[in-house]
Amino acid sequence: MPIPAGIAAFVPGTAVAAGAAVMFAVGSVLQHEAASSSSSPDGLELRRLVTRPKWMVGQGATVVGTLLQVVALALAPVAIVQPVLAGGLVVALGIRSVRDRCLPSRLDGIGAVCTCGGLAVFLVAARPAAGTGDRLPPWLPVVVAVLVAVGLVAVASRSGRGPWGALACGAAAGVAAGVAAVLISAAIKTFGERGPLATLGGSALWAALVVAVIAQLGSQQAYARGALSWSMPALVLLDPLAAVPAARLLTGERLEPGHAFVWVPAAAVAVVGVVLLARTGEGCRRPLRVSTRSQREARGTPD
């Protein structure tokens, strides 16, 4: 079957974005484990966090994912790349289940199907198109985007531990990550249209670096406040929800309006999937029991 118009031109970028999603998923799981063991009643202790080898490996995976994301943004619009990255939620929760030796619940399965299916239909029906070269963002909207991202993460970081704190920090980090992706896309567009000197002298590149760091700080705060199934769904949901309209306003990217009757419900289904995954919370409802030799001998059962 031929690939629908609007995606056919962006297959390489979509594939690279899928690789970035896997790397972000690995990094999220490892960083969540490190942040969970580096928190105190007063909040996340950054000194303890940066000394954890697990956190360093997770950061390495995140750096690789970020590099792949930059490549993907050079090959495809933000409206394709960010929703594909959201699919990393399913990968992360799958890795989490393996590491915890816990089988996914029925709710997990339904949420994963809704998330992946909704995103797939969204990408087919939305037919995202790249913005034009004359829609490079001026400095004022860039400064406003940075202030919004910093403000949201700062306010959310004052929340306590538990579901609401993790959701708040995850949502703020997601908005910051979405804004950072748009600014990276704008910097890449500036490079292609005007060259390296204009890119280094422009506001988009430096703003993207600032917001990316803020997004990382927000995600660490989210991981430290509770289960990954609380923080990561909010992060991956708000990322594309913030990125798509920001890309429309800042760089002129657009979705196919005539297919809105398809891609709007598809996006809603993906949102429902993320909400279902978030409801799994902490604890294991279906532990994977592995019968070891010592356990069999204790029960008096043969090998």
Alpha-carbon distance between the termini? Answer: 51 Å
- Radius of gyration computed on alpha carbons: 20 Å
Mean pLDDT: 77
Beta fraction of the residues? under 5%
Helix/strand class: mainly alpha
Low-pLDDT parts are 1-5
Give the SSE string. HEEHHHHHHHHHHHH
Sheet with the most strands?
2 strands, antiparallel
Helical residue percent?
over 70%
Number of strands: 2
How would you write the strand order of the largest sheet? 1-2
Shape: globular
Q: Helix tally? A: 13
Write the layout of secondary structure elements.
Elements: H1 11-36, E1 39-40, E2 43-44, H2 46-50, H3 53-75, H4 78-86, H5 88-100, H6 106-126, H7 139-156, H8 163-194, H9 196-201, H10 203-223, H11 228-250, H12 260-278, H13 293-299
Antiparallel strand pairs: 1-2
Helix pairs in contact: 1-3, 1-4, 1-5, 1-10, 3-8, 4-6, 4-11, 5-11, 6-12, 7-8, 7-10, 8-10, 8-11, 11-12
Could you give a quick summary of the protein structure above?
The protein is mainly α and 303 residues long. It has helices spanning 11-36, 46-50, 53-75, 78-86, 88-100, 106-126, 139-156, 163-194, 196-201, 203-223, 228-250, 260-278, 293-299, and strands at residues 39-40, 43-44.
How would you describe this structure to a colleague?
- The chain is mostly helical and 303 residues long.
- The protein is built from 13 helices and two strands, in the order H-E-E-H-H-H-H-H-H-H-H-H-H-H-H.
- It has helices at residues 11-36, 46-50, 53-75, 78-86, 88-100, 106-126, 139-156, 163-194, 196-201, 203-223, 228-250, 260-278, 293-299; strands at residues 39-40, 43-44.
- It has a two-stranded antiparallel sheet.
- Strand 1 (39-40) and strand 2 (43-44) form a beta hairpin.
- The longest helix is centred in the middle third of the chain and has 32 residues, at 163-194.
- It is globular, with a radius of gyration of 20 Å.
